Amino acid sequence: MARPTTLARRIDLPLLTFYALGTILGTDIYVLVEKVAEQSGSLAPLAFLVVAIVTSVTALSYCQLAAHFPKSAGKAY
Predict the structure, then answer these.
(1) Which pTM value belongs to this model?
(2) pLDDT digits (tens, 9 = 90+) for 8-41
(3) Which of 43, 46, 58, 61 is most enclosed, with most CB atoms within 10 A?
(4) Domain ranges in the chain?
(5) Contact predicate 37/44, CB 8 Å
């Protein structure tokens, strides 16, 4: 019988950097800027600021969940 494998819970700076870069560029950020500018006009910087705030709150929520559930697919202990 094979031993159960566990997920490695580590991420280093280069991997995190490349992941973030791939995510940003993979979502066609350049097309997104144009579409936002079309819709919001001169308020585009404000629109991006609001999105940055909402994204930050979402990221903090995920951080709280990761801290609350430290094991992969596990319940809180």
Answers:
(1) 0.51
(2) 777 788 888 888 888 777 766 677 788 888 888 8
(3) 43
(4) 14-68
(5) yes
